[in-house]
Design goal:
Blueprint: H1 7-24, H2 28-34, H3 39-47, H4 66-79, H5 81-101, H6 104-116, E1 121-124, E2 140-143, E3 147-158, E4 165-171, E5 181-187, E6 193-198, E7 209-220, E8 224-225, H7 231-267, E9 269-270, E10 273-274, H8 279-307, H9 313-338, H10 349-358, H11 366-379
Parallel strand pairs: 1-4
Antiparallel strand pairs: 2-3, 3-7, 4-5, 5-8, 6-7, 9-10
Length: 380
């Protein structure tokens, strides 16, 4: 086991940290207040290679490994989880799915633009009645010979209003259950494809979240990804990688809150001394540092297994389950350490606390992660 980051990894981490501190931090409170999507910043992240971290350079990607991706996600998430979730979805779900399962023509047409940030991608799985139960797809894609006709509703779609291309999961043969599900590439502006109002959310308010409607949307046959009926397997494998991204996001939120709390505790005085010298606060900081480091090791292990070509379903579920729990508990503690100031927007920790909650919900709730983990350990 080698826990030391390479010089290349350190350079990548530092580049992401510099971008987060110098580009994301100014205006982050305003973006949160106004639910403002960071268009210009997303373009810059594309130019830096953050939107196609693991994509082969021949398709315009950065060609880096999953550990690099985790390092980038952590640093961005310390400052702005709304920006980092755009990076996560584009990398883990959209680029990965097309590169691993798409045709060469699909890669040339879509992946080359997604990896550079010219396009933004969205992943459309959740429905009003099919969130955690991905097999219960009500959205249908009926084979019409040379094309499919898609009808249905998708909700909670990240980058739903800003995306250029959407991966849409739909049921083509209900009698076959999960083996009748397919995934399609649908372009923005396709006739019959409508974007609903933006969701007014508790956290990650700068992220663009919408409900999508598909009314007789005609999709050419060549836009189906993978063999007929392979959509459920595609979605589950893609989400396993997505959990690494969200685990890294949760880790970054927790680490960002901890860093703010530590800094504040060294500046704020009560009873004549800095509050970090009071045992009540010192022990909170000790617990925070320990739990964050444990979460970091789980996230890094999952990323390493992915890089080694191993099965990372189990480790990614553990990483997401634990890191999201740490994000929630440590942001609450950061607010507590700040006292009354923690309840004020200018100190940032209240936003991090609000952002933390979603990491326990999207791309598989904590309860779903426990199902994955328990099935794995009882099967062995």
């Amino acid at each position: 086991m080698n826990f030391t980051l390479s010089e290349e990894h350190l350079m990548i981490r530092d580049a992401a940290r510099d971008f987060a501190q110098n580009e994301l931090l100014p205006g982050v409170i305003e973006r949160d207040n106004n639910q403002h999507f960071p268009d210009a910043l997303v373009k810059k992240m594309g130019e830096l290679g953050f939107l196609g971290v693991m994509v082969d350079p021949k398709y315009g990607g950065s060609g880096m490994d999953a550990i690099s991706y985790v390092l980038i996600m952590e640093e961005l998430s310390k400052i702005d989880a709304s920006a980092s979730v755009i990076v996560s979805v584009n990398n883990s779900l959209v680029c990965y799915g097309i590169e691993c399962y798409g045709t060469e023509a699909q890669k040339q047409k879509y992946l080359t633009k997604l990896a550079t940030g010219e396009f933004i991608g969205a992943f459309c799985l959740s429905e009003p009645e099919a969130g955690s139960d991905a097999t219960s797809q009500k959205t249908t894609a009926i084979d019409k010979g040379d094309h499919y006709l898609i009808n249905g509703t998708k909700n909670w779609i990240t980058s739903g209003g800003r995306a250029d291309v959407y991966l849409v999961v739909a049921q083509s043969d209900k009698e076959k259950g999960s083996h009748g599900i397919n995934v399609f590439l649908v372009e923005k502006g396709t006739e019959g494809f409508h974007i609903g109002p933006k969701e007014d959310k508790l956290g990650i308010r700068g992220s663009d979240t919408h409900t999508l409607q598909f009314n007789d949307v005609k999709v050419p046959k060549e836009n189906r990804i993978g063999p007929n009926g392979s959509g459920f397997r595609f979605a589950m494998k893609t989400l396993s990688g997505g959990r690494i991204g969200i685990a890294a996001q949760a880790l970054g939120i927790a680490a960002g809150a901890y860093e703010l709390a530590l800094k504040y505790s060294k500046e704020r005085k009560t009873f004549g001394v800095e509050i970090c010298n009071h045992q009540a606060i010192a022990f909170k900081l000790a617990d925070m540092a320990t739990e964050i480091e444990a979460a970091r090791n789980l996230v890094m292990k999952a990323a390493w297994e992915k890089d080694q070509g191993m099965n990372y379903d189990f480790s990614s579920a553990m990483a997401k389950l634990y890191a999201s729990k740490v994000a929630m508990t440590q942001t609450v503690e950061a607010v507590q350490i700040h006292g009354g100031n923690g309840f004020v927007k200018e100190y940032h920790v209240e936003r991090l606390m609000r952002d933390a909650k979603i990491t326990q919900i999207y791309e598989g709730t904590s309860e779903i992660q426990k199902i994955i983990i328990s099935r794995s350990i009882t099967r062995d």
